[in-house]
Structures are given as structure tokens and as C-alpha cells.
Amino acid sequence: MTRTGERPVVAHEWVLDRLLEGPLRPDDLRLRARELPALQPGEVLVRNEFMAVDPAMRLRMDRRRAGRLAYPEGEAVGAKAVGTVQESAADGIPVGARVVTFLGFRDFAVARADALDVVDDLVGDLPPENALTALGNPGLTAWVGLTVIADLQAGETLLVSSAAGGIGSLAVQIGRLRGARVIGSAGTEDKVRWITEELGADSAFDYHAESPGAPLDRLAPDGLDVYFDNTGGPLLEAAVPRMRRLGRIAHCGSVSGYDGGGSPLRIDDVAQIVLNSLTLRGYIVDEHRAIWPRALEELRTWLAEGHLRAPHTVVDGLDSVPEALADVLRPGATHRGKLLVRLDVARP
Amino acid sequence: MTRTGERPVVAHEWVLDRLLEGPLRPDDLRLRARELPALQPGEVLVRNEFMAVDPAMRLRMDRRRAGRLAYPEGEAVGAKAVGTVQESAADGIPVGARVVTFLGFRDFAVARADALDVVDDLVGDLPPENALTALGNPGLTAWVGLTVIADLQAGETLLVSSAAGGIGSLAVQIGRLRGARVIGSAGTEDKVRWITEELGADSAFDYHAESPGAPLDRLAPDGLDVYFDNTGGPLLEAAVPRMRRLGRIAHCGSVSGYDGGGSPLRIDDVAQIVLNSLTLRGYIVDEHRAIWPRALEELRTWLAEGHLRAPHTVVDGLDSVPEALADVLRPGATHRGKLLVRLDVARP
Questions:
Q1: Which B residues 262-291 touch A at CB under 8 Å?
Q2: Is the pLDDT reported for residue A4 higher than 90?
Q3: Domain A10-133+311-342 superfamily per CATH
Q4: Spatial distance between the Cα atoms of B112 and B90, rounded to a whole number of angstroms
């Protein structure tokens, strides 16, 4: 057991008092100061440095739809975060170690050693914020979706939605590295350019400019083998009848419906699913931990060799959390890649 | 090369002159006499004895929806059939051999040796019509769907639609043999009784008597692990939000929409698919030929030991084909298990 340094008396944390029944409003989250408890054996005190802002957090806030993943009311909102251990009552996690927890949206947190990952184990020699981008949930979600769920093969045609987002920007690049022909969709012309020119997609389209059937017919006249879907909504509905035989849809999110009543799926004729032997599969990356070591090894190699970038946008300060969450839910928002909040650790 | 016996001069066959654009009508199929050609090397002449009447035939007749599986217009309708080789120009297929072809809905047919299965290889010592029921497409479709597509485990809760039908009646029994808790749906009270009393389902319900959400909530209050779906329609829509975490839907047909404009699928909120990590997978049993030997071995053993029955209903005569096809498309039809047409080989 190791103890060191000055101990903060209070933590500041964003709290959700009530699960949502309508769209997220700025005052649904409340910043609260809370006295930090003394550590129990097996616990560490973490000072957060980077926090991931994830559209799926909105789903966990939803009274009607969150189910088993709902945030507990009246408690600090969980978010993936990288922080430094300030005080330790856990064997093998020394003070100064960088760790990833689900204890973001707060400056200081008490974490159990069995519910955290050590950043060095994830990122090796790379900067720690990679544990929230290419070597964290976004990279693992894209890798697992394309490799395990969709079994993407070289030469296949891949569609990626939200292709300028935290997960989509990595799925585009992984698809390209796997030898697929990659089509991306995004919500602004700037992002469309960025997806092709910077991320290497073969083509991309602005889903605000036209209904999705037209660009899919134009850019993939022979149909799609794999759709990496993290939006749901009209693009998913347009993709289903345009899948080729034995097509696979890896579905990791439906952000288009998170801040409304949900994203419906309307397939005119379910016979398409049999006639083309389609698979539509939802997944959560935490259910695939057994394959993370192999995924991380490949992702780290790509990063180290310069084949993969970890796009992200950084905003500063705990106060920026509510606006950042609204931003990742807003169609056509201007940030690119993963949105991270960097913490203002000067707060007393 | 072997030749023998009297050679018929003409075959009688049911022909579809035009793909359908509306519901099937009695005169859409036309019985035609056709002179049989001389055999080419590698061909055999088959006299059909049993023909399978399959709801999916209707889908192949549909101009708008059949896609790559559409029947060629103006030709005899293909159906799985067991027949006896009358004349052979193929090595290894002697006269008198029983074979399965896709050349049903006719009395005599010329088959290529590389497009048939030898009945003995499928059924062993069991009666040949098993090649169209438990040891043919219905049994293989049920076995592949539950074993490969859905990976059904002992103790899980399984829903089977069309549970009194040709495929469903086998899926119920295979589910039970795998140790699952089995719920069946059917369209008459008589069938509901038969599914539980004769096939061994734990429970069953009449989908005409109430909307499907109510019986599912009553019979599976903790939700469904696997749904073996060959109907689509309202039961599929009711099942999706009632699937447990990591639930699997094996989808081999959507008979509820075959004779109409198709079976729509309307999911209120596709987030259910991610939140519960659901898989919806369509498949065609012919795509899984590599695993047929293992499936047939297990199915044959169950049949031989009396653990599995091969339910079927027989109607006689080539003239009964159109009514038999209408019957398998009719909700609440009274036949049980697979519907077979036994051929009137006395036809001149």
C-alpha cells in the first residue's frame, strides 16, 4: 500500500438527478462538489486528465430505453477517462500510474483496482489519450465490428456511417487497411472531404444533401458487403435492401435516435434478409474483451508505423462537459474524430 | 451407361408462364405435356414419387421480390422431389437408384448427376420420403438454424413460429432434444395441442387468438434467447423487443408475407439491437452443405432411436399440386408437418 502527496478534500462531478424522458437540456446535468471518502483496500484515488464524450451516454440517460445500462439517478455520470493515481490502497497500482476508468465527468474519483485498465498496457509508448481513441473503446469497437462481427474481407465494399466521428473515423481507416473499398457518410461537406482526403476513404457523401438511397446507388452500384453502422435511422433503412448476398451489418449504435424517441427500423420486406442471407448484429465492445489483446496489438502496430491516425478534438475544462455532450448528439457538429474533455485540474 | 425398361414419351409438368405480381391464383400454374429428350452423357431420367410443397416456392414466383432465386418463366416449376432412376447415362447412378432433385412438380424429369443427391446417402435404411422431411431441407434447415445460426444451448428459451409446419415441427423437436424450453406458435387450437402433446413443446399459443405480445409475455416472462423464425410478420416484430441479452434470431423464411406484398419489419427503436447485443440472421440451407453430413448423422440417430418424428401430410396426384401450394400459404391450414404430393404414376 502506498500513500503520497496532498489529498484533495472534494471532487467535482456532473450528476444526473433524473433519467430523461425527452431531449437532453443544458440543466439536466448538475455540477456537484462531494467530499472524497477514505480509500478502502483495493481502491485508488484518480485525478482525471482526459474524458471521452460518447453519444451512447445519452442512451444510458434514457428512462424508457436504457434498460440494464441506465445510469443510477443522483450519481455522477460515468464516462471513460484517463487519469493519474494520486493515492493507492491497491497492490500493483502505484501512485503516478495512469489508468482508464469509467469514472469520468468528474475531476477526482475513487476507483476499484479490479474495474480499471492500466494505460501503459493499452498504449505502450504512445501518448495516454490514445487509451480513449484508437487504443480505447472507439478503436476496439471499430476493430471488433469489422473483424469479429462483420468478418470484413479484402476487396469487399464497406459502408461506414458517422465516418468523421470517434468510431467511424477509425472504422474507415481499418477498412482501408483490410483492403476493402470504403464509402463514408457524414453530415457536412467539410467532413466528406476530410474522410476521403485525410482518412483514405474511396468515396464519401453528405447525408444531409440527399436521401441516402441515391448516393448508395451511385457509389456502390453493385451493393454493399458490409455496413458498419453507428447511426441507425434512414441510412440503415437504405442500406438493408442494398446489401449483397451474405452481407453483414455490424451495428454498434444508433446515434440518430439517441436524443429523440429512438431510431426506428422499417424494412419493407423482411424476405430480403433470407433471399440475401443477411446478418444484422448488434454488439457492445466490452462483451469481446477476450480478443482485445489481439486487437490492441494490431492497432498499436498500425499507429506506430503511421498507417493509422487517432483523430480527436479536445475541449478544455470540466465546465465544458454539457456542451460537449450536446455536440456529439448534434447532426452536423463540426468536431472531428473522438471528442475529449481535457480537465482543468487547477480547480481547487 | 445403363438403359432399361419402357421409356415414357412425354412428361407432365406444372409450368409458370409469368412471374406473379399479385396473390397466387389457381390458374397461374398450367399443366403441360412435354416430349422427353434423349439423355446426354451425365444425365438420368427420373420418375418422381414424392414432391415437397414448400411455401418458399411462392417467393421464387414473385416478380418483384424473387431476385436471383426467381423461377424461369415458361418452364416447369422446381421443387424438391424423390424419384427413381428409370434410365441412366451417368456413371455411378444405376437404374433403380432413388434420388433427390429440384425437379419436382412434374412426373418425369431429366436430371444431371451433379445436381442430385442419392437418397440412400441421406436416409440410410429409413423410408425414402424422409429425404424430403427430417433428412431433407426441412430437417437440415431446422438443424442448421438452431445449431449453426443460433447456437442454441441447453436451458435456453426458444420460440418457434409455424411450429406445426414442415420446418417448425422439426425445430420444436430439435430444440427439445437440445435441452431448450420450447414455445411454439400455430394458427389453430388443434395444432397448438398437437405441438405440445405430440411434439413435446413446453407451451404453445394460437397466433390468431390474440396479438403475439400477450402470449409471449405470459409464456416467456423473462424473455427469449432464441427465436427460430420462418414467418416474419407480427410475431417477429413482437419477438425483437422481447429477446434477452445476446439473443439470436435465426430467420429462414417469412411465409406471412409470401402471397402478399411482402412481410414488413417495423422495430420501434433499433437501439434494442445494441443494448441487448441481438443477432438477426437470414440463411438458406444450401449455403451450409459443408455441415450437412454432421447434421444428417445426428438427425438419423434421433429418428432411428425414436426421439424424433418426421411429421408430414400426403396428398395424391399431380393434379393436386396447385391446391397443395395454396394450402401451405394459407394461415390456419389444417395439414400438419411437411406437405408432400405423392405422384400418380399411372398417368399415361
A1: 262-284, 287
A2: no
A3: Medium-chain alcohol dehydrogenases, catalytic domain (3.90.180.10)
A4: 8
